[in-house]
Specification:
The protein is built from 28 helices and 5 strands. The protein has 566 residues and is mainly alpha-helical. Helix 7 packs antiparallel against helix 8 and helix 11 packs parallel to helix 13. The two termini are 43 Å apart.
């Protein structure tokens, strides 16, 4: 949905022609028709290829290639869901057709349905392990899911097969850039730009590297030139404007910086509105759950024993949460300085329980009443997802970092009543401003961050919900102030260690090096590679005028949380 769709021919997938069993049907088109359409596509004449496919379909012929072009036309008309339906029909007709698998995966990727995209690309790779595009597209899906190590391996496997593969080079540049390895990112990006000087993501990686090298004027000129490209997508243009905003803000040109951020987020609201802008969204869900807990009693949620620990249980189970941009990444990388800690980074291992018990506030009644036998099924599902992510928690201090697990505290309390909760806190004004200016993988929750007042109201909803739970859930929780961590890192981390049953290690100080090797890149990652810094504190002060309405919403929390003097 974000790029002009391309058919599978341009991706290096061979076209299957003729009356093979995979292409059988009531009226298989003659090989000459298929070859003619395929030649048009390979020559870049996509429009004529679609016209000829339409004619063949109208004549009653059926073949995966024809359906692929029909799907392409639907997607280019802004109907990606209809395109998926057509491609699923093609896949049912020919389950091992490589073009259909690739095309279906690409549409899923554009719709940000990354798990489904990955399944298609893995199936494609299973048909031909030497197909570079299969590994490259697996890398794109894995990167979007957050499995950076696996994504990097997939991209590098594609480069082994096709040394200058642009998708893989771009993916590796992006991974390196987002973890702050700008010299590495620059090397990959330069290889992409040799063949495609206006490649958007490669130019973005180069611009980040230029900022890191102290030449922001080069980055700004590069991004301004990129924005003149008529082929740039709305999301690519938004990303470029976001980085321009960072450059202008660092230079003290705050009015111009805010104009760039506003242009970025307004474009993203337009682009993602059909997917995430309808209904009450994550904020409405938080508000409805808060209303539920207003009318429930503490006795209904009294702590219940979780039963006998399994032999392969972790030594200690810790959930690290808080509103996004409150400092959870810093806490995580600090704690992993102890070799006894293993961590799951922003992957929703609770999803099975959420689907059963938290789709609607009324589901919470069933959660409160659930038997241990029923809860055991969802505990098992949770640990299965943890291990599928490549984490072995047995005998370790297992840290599950997912900021918005705050909204899942009732489920955590029932599934894991003995777990510890670390709750990160930061000045609400810094939090909301940071959420507005940083780019996240889009979701119903992240969509709220594209408007300042809406982001503030979402913060209010989540914190109201969390506050109500304090009198109803009996969960061991330690609240951690980001500012205190910046002020006295060792003291605060030692307090955390005491709470979760962990020993302090001097290696916990050296989180910058560990950040550079993280598989999961968050908006904080590149910042943390430079070590502990107060640079992100108080940025909101330069934007008080555009933040005026958001600040009104946040003021009660500023007072309640003790930030009024800050």
């Amino acid at each position: 949905m974000t790029k002009t769709p391309q058919p599978f021919f341009s991706a290096g997938v061979k076209v299957k022609l003729g009356n093979s069993p995979q292409a059988s049907g009531p009226r298989v088109p003659p090989v000459e028709i298929l070859r003619s359409i395929g030649d048009l596509a390979r020559q870049g004449n996509i429009q004529e290829a679609m016209v000829q496919s339409d004619k063949a379909l109208a004549a009653g012929f059926v073949h995966p290639m024809l359906l692929n072009f029909a799907a392409l036309k639907l997607e280019m008309s802004g109907r990606p869901e209809d395109a998926i339906a057509v491609l699923l029909e093609a896949r049912a007709m020919a389950p091992k057709d490589p073009g259909t698998l690739n095309a279906l995966g690409l549409v899923y990727l554009r719709l940000e349905r990354f798990v489904e995209a990955l399944e298609c690309f893995e199936a494609l790779g299973g048909l031909d392990p030497n197909l570079a595009i299969a590994h490259a597209n697996q890398g794109q899906a894995l990167q979007a899911i957050g499995l950076g190590d696996r994504a990097e391996a997939a991209f590098k496997r594609a480069l082994d097969l096709a040394p200058e593969h642009p998708v893989s080079l771009t993916g590796l540049a992006s991974l390196a850039s987002r973890r702050g390895a700008h010299a590495e990112a620059k090397g990959y990006a330069e290889r992409v730009l040799k063949g495609a000087p206006m490649a958007a993501e490669a130019n973005m990686c180069m611009a980040r590297a230029e900022v890191d090298l102290g030449t922001p004027e080069l980055a700004e000129a590069r991004l301004a030139h990129l924005l003149t490209d008529p082929h740039i997508t709305p999301i690519e243009a938004a990303d470029a404007r976001n980085l321009i905003g960072d450059i202008l803000g660092a230079r003290g040109e705050h009015d111009q910086a805010f104009a760039a951020y506003l242009a970025c987020n307004s474009a993203l609201r337009t682009e993602y509105g059909p997917l995430f802008g309808t209904g009450a969204g994550a904020m409405g869900h938080a508000q409805s759950m808060a209303r539920y807990f207003q009318r429930t009693t503490a006795s209904a949620w009294a702590r219940k024993p979780a039963g006998k620990p399994l032999a392969d249980s972790p030594r200690s189970h810790v959930f690290l949460m808080g509103f996004p941009r409150s400092g959870t990444t810093l806490l995580e990388v600090a704690l992993t300085g102890n070799e006894d800690v293993v961590t799951l980074e922003e992957q929703d291992a609770l999803i099975d329980g959420v689907r059963q018990f938290m789709r609607h506030p009324d589901d919470l009644d069933a959660l409160a009443r659930a038997s241990e036998a029923e809860l055991d099924m969802f505990r098992a599902a949770y640990w299965r997802r943890v291990r599928e992510a490549g984490i072995e928690p047995s005998g370790k201090v297992f840290l599950d970092r997912y900021p918005l697990n705050t909204l899942k505290l009732p489920l955590i309390a029932r599934l894991f009543p003995d777990a510890k909760v670390l709750f990160a806190l930061r000045d609400p004004r810094d939090v909301v401003w940071s959420c507005y200016r940083r780019r996240f993988q889009m979701s119903p929750s992240m969509y709220h961050f594209l408007d300042l007042e809406e982001a503030a109201r979402f913060y209010d909803s989540v914190m109201t919900f969390k506050t109500q739970l304090e009198t109803r859930l009996d969960q061991d929780m330690l609240v951690l102030r980001h500012e205190a961590l910046l002020e006295d890192f060792e003291r605060e981390v030692q307090a955390i260690c005491a709470f979760i049953g962990l020993e302090w290690r001097e290696a916990m100080r050296d989180f910058g090096a560990r950040t550079r090797s993280r598989s999961m890149a968050t908006p904080s990652t590149a910042q943390l590679t430079r070590g502990l810094s107060k640079d992100g504190t108080g940025h909101w002060r330069s934007y008080t005028i555009p933040m005026a309405r958001a600040l009104e919403v946040l003021e009660p929390w500023v007072q309640k949380l003790g930030y009024s003097e800050g």
